[in-house]
Amino acid sequence: MKYFGGCDVGSTYTKAVILDENGKMVADTTIKSKINAEESAKLAMQEVCGKVDGIKDSKDLAYLIGTGYGRNKVPFADENVSEISCHAMGVHVTDPNVESIIDIGGQDIKGIAIDKDGTVKNFAMNDKCAAGTGRFYEAMARSFEMTLPEFSKLSLTAKNVIPITAQCTVFAESEVITLVGEGKAMDEIAAGIQMAVAKRCFVMAKKAGATDSITLTGGCAKNDGLKKAIEHVLKLKVVNLSTDPQLMGALGAAEYARQKGMAKH
What we know:
By secondary structure, the protein is an alpha/beta fold. It contains eight helices and ten strands. Helix 3 runs parallel beside helix 5 (169-181) and helix 6 packs across helix 7.
């Protein structure tokens, strides 16, 4: 049996996936990214290879593709592919019926439309500002003195939405601190934050030409409050994926590696 790998070096987390010849996921891992992208890739690959019998390290893989923000730094990778293509392919092999993605990474938001074969039909990206990204949510959770999972559920109990007007992470954080200091309801402030991010996602999704079936990828896909706000703003049901949405980039990279590796033999 041959094995194929995908390593997605993100700004916040590094993910790795190994597939067998039939496209079945046999191992995966997610680690916090180091400052050095190459070190992140090495650690993730070491960890994921250790979960598969007969594979000592990434050199034992038939084909390996690097993706993500640090994709040029994946040692032993046969090639690298953009994370936009990899997220599209990852979602396609997980659920072929999904036609659009909102990918919320550590530092950017992307809207992606997927073609019938899993390739990218169109995409739009907001990478000028960190508002609405994973880093933004980490800052917001800090302002509330909560963990990210606690914060992601906070808005679900809100009866009203207190709008957050600042578009910038730094200003939004000070706006939130002011509102908390004024004794405003925490869940209603959180609902305002989720709504502000959902509106940004809406713009990216529309620019990319998002249609009926949409899903979220990246770590922020696990944010229940955001998912609810996006459904409200987009007037669309957000599809839950059967595989961890944070692994989509690595899964897509591994699938590309499988297709290329199998074609060579």
